[in-house]
Amino acid sequence: MAVKIAIANQKGGVGKTTTTLCLADAMKYCGFSVLIVDMDPQCNTTSEFISDTTDIPTIYDVFNDKMDIKECIITSERGSIVPGDKDLPEIDSKINSRMDRYMILKKKLSGVDDDYDFILFDTPPTLGTWMINAITAADGCICPILADKYAIDGLGALLKTIRDAKENTNPDLKVYGVLLNNYNQTKALHKEIWSTLPKIGKQLDFPVFKKPIRTCQEISKAQAVGKSLFETAPSSNAAVDYAEVLDELLKKIKRKGR
Questions:
Q1: CATH code at 66?
Q2: Does residue 246 belong to any structural domain of this protein?
Q3: 256 band by pLDDT with thresholds 50, 70 and 90
Q4: What is the tens place of the pLDDT at every residue in 186-230?
Q5: What is the count of structural domains for the chain?
Q6: What share of the chain has pLDDT > 90, as a percent?
Q7: Rounded to two decimals, what is the model's pTM?
Q8: What band does 12 get if pLDDT is binned at 50, 70 and 90?
Q9: According to the 3-state scheme, what is the secondary structure of the chain?
């Protein structure tokens, strides 16, 4: 059965797509089979796999009950993905009229649960149908943040959403960790936030990954050519950091590498 992980934060621009892609690449590099489900109508993750989604089955078709999720999986050299869809908000009202509106993704995934080691959900930067479906279907969340003075405020809102999900739709949901992205140790603010984040984590009851993801131009270069960071720059700072984050994650979920 796949370990399902939502990459989630209700704040935009914190590196959810980058985290989803690089973590999936690290998993594949270690021999795991990975499926990405793009729940964000902005479709940034999807664009790394497919340049044009016209006439291609997407997550829209899954939620609109037009297709089984297995029929919507696109596999390319980049990996396997259920593509996102910019038209997803069009069926928001239809979904919200259903009694099982937050359980849809969880139910739909039963058809592919045994086909992968990991399923990662890239989520939108807003609380709503798609975010809640992802964290309801997930075993746990990874919460990327940036080193800025408003990061903790946004994190507090996300943790409330996670607590609500645990109370209402997913009692076994875990927070695998808060992940500090784009960390530059030469900047005083970044160093200050990194040093205080574990203390805040203890106060607010969330774990923090022991390794931040350092600022690295090789990430943008890899994404520009649609390649894995572990293919284009396996020795880069970010590749090393994501490998260490994956190692910590595997220990948290008690799963051995291949």
A1: 3.40.50.300
A2: yes
A3: low
A4: 999 999 999 999 888 888 888 999 999 999 999 999 988 889 999
A5: 1
A6: 71
A7: 0.94
A8: confident
A9: CCEEEEECCCCCCCCHHHHHHHHHHHHHHCCCCEEEEECCCCCHHHHCCCCCCCCCCCHHHHHCCCCCHHHHCEEECCEEEECCCCCHHHHHHHHHCCCCCCCHHHHHHHHCCCCCCEEEEECCCCCCHHHHHHHHHCCEEEEEEECCCCHHHHHHHHHHHHHHHHHHCCCCCEEEEEEEECECCCCHHHHHHHHHHHHHHHHHCCCECCCCCECCHHHHHHHHCCCCHHHHCCCCHHHHHHHHHHHHHHHHCCCCCC
Structure tokens at 175: 């927070």
Q: Is residue 258 part of a domain?
A: no
Domain that holds residue 52: 3-252
